[in-house]
CHRD domain-containing protein (Terracoccus luteus), 263 residues
Amino acid sequence: MRTRTYRLAGATFASAAVLALTVGPAFAADNAWVSANLKPVVENGVKGSGTAMVEVDGTTITVTMAAMGLLPDAPHAAHIHFSAAARHECPAVTDDKSGDGTINTTEGGPAYGDIVVSLTKTGDTSPASGLAVDRFDTAPGGKISYERGSIKVSQGVADAITKGQSVVVIHGVDHNHDGKYDGDTKSDLDPSLPTEATDPALCGALRVAPAGGMHTGGGQITGQTGQDGTNTGMLALGGGLLLAAAGTGAFAAKRRNTARAGA
């Protein structure tokens, strides 16, 4: 059994901003990993935030993500986006080509690119599941706590993620603040849906961590990794597992292998 030490980013965590998530597969020390702070997409009126981490092992990825401030109890499609021609960033005000004061998914495309991974809870994760609303998180209480491993991607997508050229986007916006997806404007992706259901809400570019892992100081927590890949103490805090602090975007970060002997 291997012991790994994790460090928590040294920001102050307000209790209301802490999202607990039980994490399964541990992040292996020798694999590439990238992380993102998820922030509101400009012009879309969302006040949420979140964090995401992706581990890349060859052409297999593990995604861990947490967010808050979303429309509660409604499906929120979430994806990893990439296109070689994209800017590899989140949309800017200048991407609002229609001038209607909001950013829809197509308008955000030049910034973040096409869907390359659908972050569904079960089943297919390909771009074909980009609108599989029955398999995305429904954000109970406005919060998402997501973790999924063994996601297969192409070598090109794996390389793009590893190089920090991909972007995580969570969709679903309540423009008129009535607590549901509705309105006369139809989705640019599926005219059977209102645009609120598919407009981008939170966005973050996945960037490469410094050598040895992303870190900002703070406390450390040690966990055991068994042969089944389960980590018993990753980001443990008060009996729960801390993934993100939404007010700060702080994320679990520094890790090192403290007992490679016997691994």
Remarks:
- Residues 77 and 131 are 7 Å apart (CA to CA).
- Confidence is low (pLDDT under 50) at residues 1-27, 213-263.
